[in-house]
Specification:
The longest helix has 17 residues. The chain starts with a strand and ends with a helix. It has 178 residues and is of the alpha/beta class. 35% of the residues are buried. Strands 3-1-2-4-5-6-7 form a 7-stranded mixed beta sheet. The protein is globular and about 40 Å long.
Length: 178
């Protein structure tokens, strides 16, 4: 897997102060995507153990609330296979920090059901994510007033509660209309 960027002290891609990893590779190709250079799986630099270690080091300060995964598309199967071992390391070292993930794939219709995104790693990856912002960016539904999402079709999902209840449980931000 390649990655395009790592943002330190990011406040735009999840609650609190976060470290954000932008993976490369996306087959959605949303019109007016904010990050089209990451569509190519070859864009950026290789995601190596050294890069993993750098991110883990950046997650150490107490003011860092967690990790956010963006792209590109974290749930492209080849990206899942690279991210799962890394997320295990994050969970082991920082069990109290949250992991947010942004995906164009729909949680219930594509990540939990047969689709081009679903692979042998999907359930394990979902089990390590706290919050999923799902759904492709839709330019006609773009709304700059929305927190942590680009278009009104996108949902902010409490993944742990949704998996436990076997239905979509909106994150508390969605419940407040944010």
């Amino acid at each position: 897997m390649n990655y395009g960027e790592i943002k330190l002290c990011d406040i735009a891609n999840g609650e609190g102060v976060r470290v954000s990893l932008f993976v490369s590779g996306c087959t959605h190709h949303c019109k007016n995507c904010f990050n089209p250079q990451t569509w190519s799986f070859d864009y950026g630099e290789p995601f190596t153990k050294e890069v993993e270690n750098k991110i883990l080091k950046e997650l150490e300060p107490s003011y860092i609330d967690g990790l956010s995964l963006l792209g590109g598309e974290p749930f492209e199967p080849s990206n899942q296979r690279a991210l799962v071992p890394f997320l295990k390391r994050v969970r082991k070292q920082f069990p109290n920090k949250t992991i947010w993930c942004y995906s164009g794939y729909l949680f219930d219709k594509e990540l939990l059901s047969d689709s081009r995104a679903r692979c042998e790693c999907t359930d394990e990856m979902l089990s390590m994510i706290d919050v999923l912002v799902d759904g492709e960016f839709v330019e006609a539904l773009h709304d700059i007033s929305l927190a942590f999402r680009g278009s009104s079709n996108q949902r902010i999902i409490d993944v742990k509660a949704s998996l436990k209840e076997n239905k979509i449980i909106p994150h508390k931000l969605m419940k407040r209309g944010v």
